[in-house]
Predict the structure of Homoserine O-acetyltransferase.
Amino acid sequence: MSQEILHYPQPFLLECGKTLPQLQITYHTYGTYNPDKNNVIWVCHALTANADVFDWWKGLFGPGYLFNPDEHFIVCANILGSCYGTTGPLSENPVSGAAYFQNFPDISIRDMVAAHEILRQHLGISRINVLIGGSLGGQQAMEWAIQFPDLIENLLIIATNASHSPWGIAFNEAQRLAIRADETYYLNVPDGGRKGLKAARAVALLSYRTYHTYGKTQYETDLNKTDNFKAISYQNYQGEKLVNRFNAYSYVSLSKTMDSHNVGRSRGSIEKALQQIKAKTLVVGISSDLLFPPQEQQYLTEHIPGAIYHEIDSFYGHDGFLIETVKLTQLIETFLAIPVAK
């Protein structure tokens, strides 16, 4: 495994019209690029993940798993706007000499893809054998496959959509309201908005899991209990867990990025945009996903030429795309064995 940083010293024009004076991209690579240059697996990560895919997608990536460094050259780049090494709200603006904080410009999925493209060219990768992503990562992978249809051989998009739904945007805004209700968010300090971020994460969890998930994992056996419920402890624990590894400014920025996702923007329609994809495509839905319900993946399958749809029956809701690695492995192995149409 290798963690590296690409310093891109040139101005980086954003879709919103603003410019970042320079760009830094932190990324991980695993394995080696083979002589035939046909073993690249590129992972696009989700909202609060990082470039170390072996850490957060165990069971699918890593030694002994489907995508392993003995066979593949695996690349995962931290996304623009994050707090794990790529330029984001806590980065220093070289023009002002201070961190951006709330003044970090709006980032789109297309901006994230543009950063991926800079890294791809830097690494000398001419062809991506498998491009994979779930949730926000799936949005990136889809957008990349539309912009560069001849670059990707196999596209794997999981628990994602062609445009973010009003339901998803509403969840994101509820989380931002929680962060903005924390007065320390406006102090523009690295740990600003911590209490708000904790509350935001608690809101997000309700969209990542389901009624039945909580009913089983947080069920109370003490019939006389009137307070200090397991579900309360769980929400607090998960909120603190995120606060200890993330920051409110990146969370606000990335949630807004997700809101703006729409592959049809400036392309006539969503359907026309999806029809530009040439990669052999597997679309995977999660049966219990409340945030990205299967109907969104079924829609993708209808409009991406030749796409194949499979649905995973999962107890874990949206988080199933990270947890159901055994089922994902079986689906992906079968899919990759299908010859690419010439």
